[in-house]
User: What shape does this take?
Amino acid sequence: MAAPILTKIVFLICCVSFLASVQLALCHDFSFVGYSPEDLTSIDKLIELFESWIAKHGIVYESLEEKSMRFETFKDNLNQIDETNKKLSNYWLGLNDFADLSHEEFKNKYLGLAMKFCHDHNLKP
Assistant: This one.
């Protein structure tokens, strides 16, 4: 008798998880800004691409210094993306909303345990 109830509970948990995943996907814009190899040929084209990317993702920087730093990171990421795309034929990489973050910044911000949460709730990591 307990087995049918357990099966229903597992099914319900799966359904809730699926719906949560769908809702998360619908709330996040998974689109990216494409580029062409000619965008890499001049600084003017890179700036135009960066400005297009900023507009697409609604990003506002606090200062010109921050924008300049983010542009340098954006260029580095774009070069890595382009080098990877030259080697692959089964998929293509583009510029998503993380294109102005370094690998280290992305890891620190989005991967691993959120220590702030643990400290705010008096939990041990």
Observations:
- The domain at 30-120 is CATH 1.10.287.2250 (Helix Hairpins).
- The CA atoms of residues 80 and 93 lie 10 Å apart.
- The longest helix spans residues 2-27.
- The chain has one domain: 30-120.
